[in-house]
Amino acid sequence: MLAEIKGLNEECGIFGVWGHPDASQLTYYGLHSLQHRGQEGTGIVVSDGNTLKGKKGEGLVTEIFTADTIKELHGNAAIGHVRYATAGGGGYENVQPLLFHSQTGSLALAHNGNLVNANSLKHQLETQGSIFQTSSDSEVLAHLIRRSGFPQIKDQVKNALSMLKGAYAYLIMTETELMAALDPHGLRPLSLGCLGDAYVLASETCAFDVIGAEYIRDIEPGELLIINDNGITSERFAHSSTKAICMMEYVYFSRPDSNIHGINVHTARKNMGKRLAIEAPFDADVVTGVPDSSISAAIGYAEASGIPYEMGLIKNKYVGRTFIQPSQSLREQGVKMKLSAVRGVVEGKRVVMVDDSIVRGTTSRRIVNMLKEAGATEVHVVISSPPIKNPCFYGIDTSSKEELIASDKTVEEIRQIIGADTLTFLSLEGMAAAITQTEGLNGFCLGCFTGNYPTEIYPDTLQYYYQRG
Q1: What is the number of alpha carbons within 13 Å of residue 82 lying toward its C-beta?
Q2: Is the domain defined by 3-241 classed in CATH 3.40.50.410?
Q3: Rounded to the nearest 5°, which phi and psi values hold at 375?
Q4: Helices 428-436 and 265-279, interaxial angle, to 10°?
Q5: Do the strands 286-289 and 350-355 form a parallel or antiparallel pair, or are they unpaired?
Q6: pLDDT averages per 10-residue partition of the chain, 469 residues
Q7: pTM for this one?
Q8: Which CATH number is 264-467 given?
């Protein structure tokens, strides 16, 4: 659905290059392909082998970087970031990559995810004399690295990473090395590719396609990958825990043309739609999906059910991102600005409306009403994921528990609120089977659906998420 309206907001996206003369330009294109993962801020830091230099700002990639600014970022290595603020909030100082200078050298880092023990670590570090320049949890790693007593940077980084709890995919760059690290559960995606003799890293493989790079493999949970002029090496900073990739990468966040752990996102979503057609069959005239992330599931539902797929809803792509607006009234108005029902398709028809999730329920209610105002005689809402009942603590803003409509309401109560004739959510087992084509729920983080999280959630983190509504 429309994350900027309904409250299901993206994580962040990271991209890195080592060993290419056009590193900053490649990073620009890579970040542009990851723009869906964050629209609040972006930045690029480059290395010319001697110094680190960066530019960042609040806004979209195309707003912050021009041809001239990219030319000014000389270097054969770069890391970049697109941001959606979760922990720490917005503001220029929190835009990444974060860049630090010291007498022993410079360090830049970009982070996708959320540290659940960040506040505890910050308190500990501040008592030891650290002064934080941002309110972002990402900065914690830099302080831990600099306070490590190991002589080599790779050992400093490994020691620092071992203290972190939560979800993180990090890119860390010095003047002479680029490092990539993934948390022991692999909650966030991160892949390695190559472009000629250069190496590239990205949150999603769609970024490789844009620049013509070749996918090599995914970064493993608990792995530290080190790239320099001598080549590439892999070390472990933690034993791999039970793998728990975020299920919402497949349901909503990743682009359809990306592959996450070898599984194509479009195919996974299409299979979810097919599974929905088995779990929620209807006698209807048309199937339509809520643009853009639900289109694949809607196609799958139509294919499996034999009901024609039609473009019953059209998205206006030239409207600003309304999630920036704080008031509920403006958020609701944004639905009308973003979406239109196609009367010629839905009038007099029984419609199956496929969507990926329901968070607050406000947008679902507006869209159902929009379809009925356009003449739909019935609207059957089918959701290609289970009810979201719990907040995510790992870098996805799924609102406070109080704002999650499914946290204290039954499916029937939600149906009545959104005004649908029927409402069906895909089962947990059906969702997992659609993605992996096997039975079982192993290998995924299902915390937002079940309340069972793969890591300990620290009390101050719980308090922040459960009370901020």
Answers
A1: 28
A2: no
A3: 105, 5
A4: 140
A5: parallel
A6: 45 94 98 95 97 96 96 97 72 93 92 91 86 85 91 95 95 98 96 98 98 98 97 92 91 95 96 97 97 95 98 80 45 69 97 95 94 98 96 76 90 98 97 88 92 84 54
A7: 0.91
A8: 3.40.50.2020
| In the chain, where the domains are located | 3-241, 264-467
Lookup: tokens for 388: 């979201």
d(CA 446, CA 246): 7
Q: What is the 3 state secondary structure string of the chain? A: CCHHHHCCECCCEEEEEECCCCHHHHHHHHHHHCHHHCCCEEEEEEECCCCEEEEEEECCHHHHCCHHHHHHCCCCEEEEEEECCECECCCHHHCCCEEEEECCEEEEEEEEEEECCHHHHHHHHHHCCCCCCCCCCCHHHHHHHHCCCCCCHHHHHHHHHCCCCEEEEEEEECCCCEEEEECCCCCCCCEEEEECCEEEEECCCHHHHHHCCEEEEECCCCEEEEEECCEEEEEECCCCCCCEEECHHHHHHCCCCCEECCEEHHHHHHHHHHHHHHHCCCCCCEEEECCCCCHHHHHHHHHHHCCCECCCEEECCCCCCHHHCCCHHHHHHHHHHHEEECHHHHCCCEEEEEECCCCCCHHHHHHHHHHHHCCCCEEEEEECCCCCCCCCCCCCECCCHHHCHHHCCCHHHHHHHHCCCEEEECCHHHHHHHHHCCCCCCEEECHHHHCCCCCCCCHHHHHHHHHCC
Do the domains 3-241 and 264-467 sit in the same CATH topology, yes or no?
no
| Cβ within 8 Å of residue 165, ≥6 positions away | 115, 116, 117, 455, 456, 458
Burial class from Cβ neighbours inside 10 Å (0-12, 13-18, 19+) for residue 375 reads: middle
Q: 118-127 and 459-467 helices cross at what angle (nearest 10)?
A: 120
Distances (CA, A) of 416 to 352, 388, 410, 412, 466: 17, 17, 10, 6, 26
Backbone angles phi, psi at 123, to 5 degrees: -60, -45
Catalytic residues: 12
Q: Kindly report the backbone phi and psi dihedral angles of residue 111, in degrees, each rounded to the nearest multiple of 5, phi listed first.
A: -135, 135
